Task: structure prediction
Amino acid sequence: MTTRSLALAAAVVATVLLAGCTGVPLLDDGDDFDAVWHSDTPANPGGTHHPAIATRIDGEAYIATGFGDVGANRSCSFVVLNGTGGVRWNESLPTDACGTQPVGDPAFGDVTGDGAPEVVWATHEQRLYASNPRTGAEVLNVSFPSGVPFAQLVVVEDPTLVVVPLMAGQVRAYHPNGTLAWNRTFPDYVRGQGPALVTREGGARELVLGTGGGLVALDPTTGETDWRTETPTRFLRTGRLGDTEVVVASGANAAGTAGEGDTHVEAVAANGTRLWERHYPGTPAVGAVGAPAPGARTLAYATNDDGRLYAYDLASGREVWNRTLDEERRYVPPPTLADLDGDGDEEVVAAAAYGPVSAFNASTGAPVGTWSWDGDAAIWAGLRSADVDGDGDEEVLAVTTDAQVVALGD
Result:
């Protein structure tokens, strides 16, 4: 695929000594952490603040994202790529719905009930779509009366529903035939990136959303509220402590509360019980939760606008390690976990907005490698990971502000 938009300058750390860390090899097979491909998409100013998501269907990769454009001749689109960055299909968006974020976070899920996932996406033209990821053929196209999509859509099974969180506080759920199943309106923004379906002890499901008033857990079938917290949420991810599903969330503390002016990271069980809460300066963005190696304790990973990446013990909230990403302390989007060399152990990968993208040993924080670029393009969207080429190693997907998807790997 093309390499026209970003000039690469790969900088690799082979062995590094840090306080409390021993030197580690770069990657087990000795290859560099570098760009595997750039998407074959036009370079538009404006790009997107939303990530690219990926799935595999019958052994082939499908990667979906929306691109904005703030240039003189606005050209916004929703795009599905293949595993080498080529365009499978794209859908142009009307000019009056075009801007920096014309599409919220998409999702894959089985809308038609045939056992194969569709890609679902919602746009600023106030429309919800579900499309065949291979061909782009629509299986759902319905308008909603108001609201701007931002957080990721959620496909619920048994019964099948597509849930659309809207930034101004509405949450709408649609049947596959486009009829409205339920509708909720909250007084706060619903923009927590990473809405999640979790299961409580006993099997009851919860749809957990991040709002400006806190986490809200809804019955996904009816939309009724089961529990909520009171600490505003901007980012959330899920993990497990034994048999308990846990939501890890971060956001700014509300005026008039303890820690006002600071931000927090918290862990909440699927039944709404808060396990711990920690207050920090800055703007922490939780991006990943998982065990860094088989049998290892589970950690949560968050970046912060102090330019650092943090690892927290999921059981206690204790900080395990932190590393500097950007000494100028600019915005750092949420990180991701990826097994870059297929050895079963995870790396945690994070990007400073203007570079570099850095990979670390997820257990110790020891550096693994970095990738940087020349030019004015930035990465504002959170990173995602998937094995897009089917070789057993995971790649990291980064979306740039000049409307490119870059796959990074070894």
Observations:
- The two ends are 17 Å apart (CA to CA).
- The domain at 188-280 is CATH 2.40.10 (Thrombin, subunit H).
- The mean pLDDT is 88.
